[in-house]
Each structure stands twice: as C-alpha cells, then as structure tokens.
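Please study the protein below:
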Amino acid sequence: MRNSLLGAIALFALSCSTAFAACDTATLQAKAQDLGTKLAALSQKNPQKATEVSQKISADANKPPANQDEVCKRYDSYIAMVDAASK
C-alpha cells in the first residue's frame, strides 16, 4: 500500500511538471519527498492512521489539477493531513 501511494505521489508530481513560476519542479519534488518521508514515519507509528490518510490522498490525487500551483497547494494539504494524524 505504502509503495503504491509513494509511486502515485511521484507520478502525480512528475505529470504536473510543466513550467509555472510560483511552483517549480524542484519545489514539487521536495514536497513529494517530504510527504513520503512523513507518511513512512506515520506508517511505522500508526499504520491504521497512515492507511486512512493514504486513502484520502489517493482519492484527491486522482482529480486532475488545474495547474502546477494547485499541485503545490495539494501537497501542502497532504503534508498537513499527515502532520495532524501524527499528533
């Protein structure tokens, strides 16, 4: 489950890597890596919460973003979800 979600995250980031000024590819990659790291830590700490968060992320990640800035905002939202679940 975790590997497929991390793969989906990476694919999501790469598929949205067209050039937009406010959120570049390097920023997206950093956010994807941060999300992956935090989700992996949550998986170790609380697998049930990690699964719940992963399902929410997967459901949202299937919706096509309007632009790369939206992708960055989604990553921020996903990271906030993982942070909240980690508390």
Notes: Residues 2-16+25-86 form one domain.
